[in-house]
Amino acid sequence: MILENKNILIGVTGSIAAYKTAHLIRLLVKEKANVKVVMTPAAAEFITPLTLSTLSRNPVYSHFSDKDTGEWTSHVELGLWADLLLVAPASANTLAKCVTGVCDNLLQAVYLSARCPVIFAPAMDLDMYRHPSVQANLAILKSYDNRVIEPNTGELASGLEGKGRMAEPEELVEALQREFSAEPLLKGKTVVVTAGPTQEDIDPVRFISNHSSGKMGFEIARSFARGGAAVHLVAGPVALPDIPGVNRINVRTATEMFEAVNSLHEQADFVIFSAAVADYRPETVAQQKIKKQDDEMFIELEKTVDIAAELGRVKRENQVHVGFALETDNELQNARGKLARKNFDMIVLNSLQDKGAGFRYDTNKITIFDQNGGEKSFGLKPKEVVADDIKNAVLEYYKSIR
Question: Are residues 160 and 217 in the same domain?
Fold first, then answer.
């Protein structure tokens, strides 16, 4: 587990979204993180310290000292203890204090003395969030090398609809996982991943497609995002949820996928072509549903754009292209031929002959070839783990060509 034995300090401020912090802490403890909580006085009006103490299995800190015993809470020690400080929810008031260095409560003192990365998860009403002063404060906090997790859009406590809902606990956990699994080589890098099938229309009702679920491509996008890269996921029609921190672009046809990837290609450092793009499409698309008449029906097909080949022709130096080959026979020969033909740097081979590999499964079994003559095979693994194997192989190759 990425967060196992990591020291996570949660700062809770005065916001109705504080109720989500209980679930957040529970998720972090489940990930085997060490969790401590610092609350502002206003936060205690929304959720009790007892609740958060019980869930975190640690005392909750909210005052500089205990009035009855005189015992002092060292904000310096808390700041040094933490591997990461997450302020969730972060109210407009707390954001402003962090910008100006106001130090009138324990959380502010911890923030000013912390040496670890700091992440803010804002939560407030839509008009407050979009106010120029709040936006200016967020920009300043980012300039201080803090991270901000953008709030979601939805129904707010005021009853209004808009941007201001604190990111969900699951999204915050994903953000922390990305923070701790960041790869130095991926810092500042842009990755484009294609995933899923395409659909090529026959008529308004029918289309040509394939069995791709998009699971492998989505896990690859997630792995690179966790590694710290800026990830663009160009997804065909699949029933998979968005990935926090990943820019998803939905497309349907091969042409739409090409246009989307082409628009991102120049800025990309790594392009992972994991989509199962239809090789052919109907030459003519009927405007009305084709009625059943004869015993046979013939459809004239034409080739779709070969996205990987087209972009392989304009691939620049040190730009890494990774292809996929799903084969049923002559696997090694076909994969190596595709590696050369499409100017890939690497190609990932999986075979439909291997049980548990290929479309729709949650597992995969792969072999990776590269232009340096490298060849590495992996056993059957969950696609989440396979995605990490692919990412690590890509980074190893990238090191060799820098």
Answer: no
Residue 85 belongs to what domain range? 7-180
Question: pLDDT 10s digit of each residue in the chain, 402 long?
Answer: 789 999 999 999 999 999 999 999 999 999 999 999 999 999 999 999 999 999 999 999 998 777 777 677 788 899 999 999 999 999 999 999 999 999 999 999 999 999 999 999 999 999 999 999 999 999 999 988 898 998 999 988 888 889 999 999 999 998 898 888 778 889 889 999 999 999 998 888 889 898 889 999 999 999 999 888 999 999 999 999 888 889 999 999 999 999 999 999 999 999 999 999 998 898 888 888 888 877 777 888 999 999 999 999 999 988 999 999 877 677 777 788 888 899 999 999 986 666 766 676 788 889 999 998 888 999 888 898 899 999 999 999 998 887
Cα(29)–Cα(18) distance, integer angstroms? 17
Q: Are 350 and 340 spatial neighbours (Cβ–Cβ below 8 Å)?
A: no
7: tokens are: 């020291």
- Tracing tokens 């030459």 back to the chain, one arrives at 283
C-beta atoms surrounding 71 within 10 Å: 9
329 phi and psi, to 5 degrees? -155, 160
> Which CATH number characterizes residue 61's domain?
3.40.50.1950
End-of-domain residue from the set 159, 180, 201: 180
Residue 5 bears catalytic tag: no
The answer to whether position 2 is within a domain reads no
Q: Given 210, 262, 334, 392, which residue is catalytic?
A: 210
**80 and 163 fall within a common domain:** yes
DSSP state of 59: -
Q: What is the pTM of this model?
A: 0.68
For residues 330 and 176, what is the distance between their CA atoms, to the nearest angstrom?
43
- The last residue of one of the domains, among 180, 213, 231, is 180
Give the orientation angle of helix 106-113 with respect to helix 92-100, to 10 degrees: 50
Residue 93 and residue 207 in one domain: no
